Amino acid sequence: MNTIPPHPPSPILRRTLNRIRPNCITILTYHRIAPDNMPDTPGKHLGISATKSIFCKQLQLLKNSTNVIPASQLAGWIRGELSLPPNASLITFDDGYRDNLTHALPVLQKLNLPAIIYLSTGNIGSQTPQYWDLAIYGFKKAAHNTYTLPIIGTVQLNYRNIDKICRRWIYAAKYLPPSERNQTTNDLIQALNVTVPTNAFKDLYLSWDEVRSMQSSRIEFGAHTVSHPILSTLPNDVAQQEIINSKLEIAKQLKQSPTSFAYPNGLPGDYNDQHIETLNNAGFDMAFTLSTGTTTRAAVKKNPYKIRRIYIGLKDSPTRFALKLFGASNHHKQSTP
Fold first, then answer.
1. CA separation (Å) from 163 to 45, 208, 219?
2. Residue range of the domain that includes 236
3. Are residues 53 and 161 in the same domain?
């Protein structure tokens, strides 16, 4: 079985990679980190990027083969104020889940690595779930039965296909207008005959106090809109408010203004030149997509608002993770949650 060596020969590997691709920048994207003792229940993989132990092995390889930097260093380099090491890399998280504090942060502290979390500010301190979190909850709690579901029609739900059907439903829903999508998600929960307790999402997202507490541990924060819409589905004035208000809320809560932004979903077509203009006018130095693969310094300088990131998911085997890390994912379609 292929595994990631726990301690690769870092000096040799680092020197080799620094020599053959010194101008490469590798940016990893995580969402949720789960405990190692996840219960073996239907849908346990949904929404999870890695377990804590897998996350640790991945970051050990990242540390041993690249030079991990904070996002603020990349922003300073874009402004012409700071330098970059060869073969630089960044660790990013999207959305603002609380397990970034409880499960990811201890690993980052153990390895002494910086990271940045892109916050959907409307979720911070909230118990109101995003549509995909509510959908995931519904599919996990649903009985194994035949259902007629909004958007995708009749399905036979069982232990083995819950992940696949849930992902299919989320993909089908994500480009609906936000108001229609929210109603459709509520219709899904009703169709699945699931009751959602009022405290079901009590500890899903970070609070602002928790966000502030993480700043002393080399964790930075960027903007990811207020309500996590796909920007291209919105009128331009509404998209502008999503971008600007997320920046203003982070500045208010943390007493410093974020310098970088991550597009929700982040694939080509999910943002446009008007959104880039808004980011530039709002004072953001850079913005991250989820277009797959490593990037180069030249590409970042040319398009600082279209920086590639590599999406990491729980189904990434050690071999696949290593291939993504070393650039193979540049030639494959990006996988998104």
1. 7, 31, 31
2. 10-126+205-331
3. no
Whether 227 contacts 120, CB under 8 Å: yes
Q: Are 91 and 227 found together in one domain?
A: yes
What is d(CA 213, CA 211) in angstroms, rounded to the nearest whole number?
5
Asked if 141 and 251 sit in the same domain, the reply is no
User: Residue 276: inside a domain, yes or no?
Assistant: yes
3 within some domain: no
Residues 84 and 214 in one domain: yes
Domains held by the chain: number: 2
Q: Are residues 243 and 312 in the same domain?
A: yes
Tens digits of pLDDT across the chain (337 residues)? 344 444 444 566 556 666 657 799 999 999 999 999 877 776 777 889 999 999 999 999 999 999 999 999 999 999 999 999 999 999 999 999 999 999 999 999 999 999 999 999 999 999 999 999 999 999 999 999 999 999 999 999 998 899 999 999 999 999 998 889 999 999 999 999 999 999 999 999 999 999 999 999 999 999 999 999 999 999 999 999 999 999 999 999 999 999 999 999 999 999 999 999 999 999 999 999 999 889 999 999 999 999 999 999 988 999 999 999 887 655 444 444 4
The count of C-alpha atoms lying within 13 angstroms of the C-alpha of 114, restricted to the half-sphere facing its C-beta, is 18
Q: Return the H-helix or E-strand segment holding 25.
A: strand 24-30
95 three-class SS: strand
Taking the model in full, what pTM does it have?
0.92
Angle subtended at Cα 231 by Cα 226 and Cα 236, rounded to the nearest 5 degrees: 100
Q: What DSSP line would sit under 98-109, residue for residue?
A: THIIIIIHHHHH
Question: In CATH, what number is assigned to the domain containing residue 255?
Answer: 3.20.20.370
Which residue type is seen at 65? S
Strand ranges inside the chain, DSSP E: 24-30, 33-34, 50-51, 67-68, 88-95, 115-119, 146-149, 153-156, 219-223, 260-262, 286-288, 295-296, 310-311
Domain-located, residue 200: no
**Is 239 contained in some domain?**
yes
